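Worked example (supplementary).
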Amino acid sequence: MSTQPEPVNRRDFLGRAARVAAMTGAGALIGKLAGTLAPGGAVWQIDPAKCTRCGKCATDCVLEQSAVKCIHAYAICGYCELCTGYFGPEPNALTTAAENQLCPTAAIQRTFVEDPYYQYRIDEALCIGCAKCVSGCNQYGNGSLFLQIRHDRCVHCNVCAIARVCPSDAIVRVPAERPYLLKTAPTTS
Amino acid sequence: MNQHSKKDAERGLRRAVCVVIGSLLLTPTAWGEQRFPPPDFEGGYQLPATSTPPARAEWFQYLDGAVLLGALGLALWLVYRRRSRRGVAALSLFSLAYFGLYRKGCVCAIGSVQNVALALADPHYALPFSVLLFFLAPLLAALFAGRAFCAAVCPQGALQDWMLLKPVKVPGWLEAALGLIPPLFLGAGVISAATGGGFWICRYDPLVPFFRFSGSAWMLGLGVAFLLVGIFVGRPYCRFLCPYGALLRYASAAAQWKVKVTPAACTRCALCRETCPFGALREPREKPKSHTQARRRLAMMLCLVPVWTGLGAWAGSRLGAPAGWFGGWAGLVIGGKLAALAMGRPQTDFEPEPGACFACARCFEACPEERLRRGWKPEEEPKA
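After joint prediction of all chains, the assembly is encoded as:
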């Protein structure tokens, strides 16, 4: 270190002043935002109580195949033989034949459990989140099928592209620790 | 007795009809109401569990932050210490793979501006920690050492940098005019995010669809157009659209350490200027004999900045408050640009303009003095 300090020219002085000002600004910003910082962050999720099964989830996600899938709350399901989420209106027969199915991709697997009950399982690899089955199940059934954003697929856009077009504002931010809004069986028996 | 039981049966029937009608009325509105009671299985059937794949674990956020800080530090070291174009190019490839293809372009510094704006405007919005880090770290790095973030860490920049095959020069007037777009886009994006109008910067990012291999036809077309133009015009998105780049440009104008092309005395061979695909290198300029005229012009331009701002704000506010903010910002940008153009900076060497230089390190290897320093013979030229 030389004992004689170098003279500071105007440009250096202005630069230094700008740096000090910017650092102060950054400090103020951190101070202002410290209270709102969420360490875990928030993720997008569909509130099944608000969802109107409009079908936009299948078409408006930024992903080629939507991050939204139908999921099944088995505890609510009635295991009906004539499932209105599985069968289209007035099915020819209550069989797994393609013409009877409501799902456009045959993503629901219907298996016999015991007379007269059938289990319905969603194959998520095939499900496109179109909500046709959700609509059928909610209209005439127990409403055990519902849409959720699958977090192994969601890319966490700054603003969810589906939320922008959702007609009922059903897509909400939820804390990342509890990323699903699941339907549960009613507690009253 | 008989009549009694008949009455009972009738009452029972009426009650049943009541219950049926009531349930029919209630069920469409009552959520979770079960029309068909869940069966009691006799065959030992187990209810399958509903799978809930978890969101990305919290510590991944810190991993993203650590990768960002590491890459930023490495970029600065490669540019200022190693002066290595290959190192910067390799690091940019890594960033493209990690931030682009693996993280699918989110979280990114460009979009973080909007989250910060929204967090300032809406106290109920929870700002993720990593987003604040992605907003501040490249900005502070630029404040001290220029835009090395753009060259080596930003995936959008890396994608364009690797597309650049045959650079052509953009005329100075066009460069200056198109250079007005990024700050205007920044203002529009920030105002839109803060007023709840959506995140325009993310929505109209033409390069993110490539990271996700999906997107609307419009955005994919725009992205392809940017990449095709980028074959000839170096980094068109970074120079003429990127809103975060506008912030970095302002920050790096005050940078303490600047990219210096030559390790020795500049011979003014202008080879570096020919190498720079981004038109960032400025020619040496003599100190003018008399400052009077230039000073008068600069003073006038500086005085006009508030006039421009007020004019823009007035014109915009006729369309509503957000447009008024945008108009004011646009006026400030234009006034500031005119003042900057009036500022003549004398310099003795070929030096990059700090705000326009991405610190890509291409010019180092073009400098004959640098080649001498490395002991390269003419035939050993690297094909970079």
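Two points are worth noting when inspecting this output. Chain A has a mean pLDDT of 89. Chain A touches chain B through 63 residues (CB under 8 Å).
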